[in-house]
Design goal:
about 230 residues; alpha/beta; Rossmann fold; seven-stranded mixed sheet; binds S-adenosyl-L-homocysteine
């Protein structure tokens, strides 16, 4: 999608793109392409593809949750910053925490945060399940795009949420059925599911909004070997 198409489609999501946000996206794109030559950040580098599959795709979250009044958000397995950095550009009031297991991606995000002058962003080099052991009930919203199977993602994300907080899983195909047991064990439930196709290239997208109903047992998240051996 070209820039005009991007602005039009983002408007349809209910989000306005002013020059302030657009300048930050342009800078982000330049940094992504520059650093991608040194460290592996993304397979998608053509400008029209980055605007569609990374920038626009990150903003589709607005179909399922209004982030304009949200205070704390944690993006798990953020990679090169999707959706976390894009959300911070458009919802600057967010107190954002970005978590990734690969330190080189966290180093890249430090550069992005500095160059784009983003405030209130914490960058955490950790595995989600280890971070979740220590940081319980801290966040209003947890997001994760293209991370793990749905039950594993629930085990990573739900412990971090405050009660009544929302986990927004951004996925391709709808695999929400796999999470029935995990949702029960983790005292949470699916609030809403939205399925749609990405414009222009028509690939399938699913947004799953999970709400935390009650405290999570201290047993979770377990160590990765246990999670892997025995999915909830
Ligand atoms: N959310 C980004 C990246 C998806 S790829 C996007 O949609 O573009 C998955 C990312 O999660 C990788 O950067 C990987 O390093 C990270 N990751 C995988 N397992 C993780 C874990 N258990 N804890 C934290 N990060 C993890």
């Amino acid at each position: 999608m070209n820039i005009d198409e991007f602005k039009l489609e983002v408007n349809k999501l209910g989000i306005n793109v002013t020059s302030l946000e657009f300048d930050k996206l342009e800078k982000y794109y330049d940094l992504l392409v520059e650093w991608n030559e040194k460290i592996n950040l993304t397979a998608i580098t053509l400008k029209k593809d980055v605007y569609l599959k990374h920038f626009y795709d990150s903003l589709t979250i607005n179909k399922i949750i209004d982030l304009s009044e949200i205070d704390t958000l944690c993006d798990l397995g953020t990679g090169a910053g999707f959706p976390g950095i894009v959300l911070k550009i458009f919802f600057p009031q967010l107190k954002l925490t970005l978590v990734d297991a690969l330190n080189k991606r966290i180093k890249f995000l430090e550069i992005v945060v500095n160059e784009l002058s983003l405030d209130n962003v914490a960058l955490v080099h950790a595995r989600a399940e280890e971070y979740g052991k220590e940081n319980r009930e801290c966040f209003d919203v947890v997001t994760a795009r293209a991370l793990s199977s749905f039950p594993i993602l629930l085990e990573y994300g739900i412990p971090l949420l405050k009660i009544n907080g929302h986990l927004i899983a951004m996925r391709g195909l709808n695999d929400s059925d796999e999470g029935i047991n995990a949702l029960n064990v983790l005292n949470s439930k699916i609030n809403k599911i939205i399925e749609f196709k990405l414009p222009y290239e028509n690939s399938q997208r699913t947004l799953i909004d999970v709400v935390k109903l009650d405290k999570t047992s201290m047993k979770y998240p377990r160590k990765f070997v246990e999670i892997k051996k025995n999915n909830l």
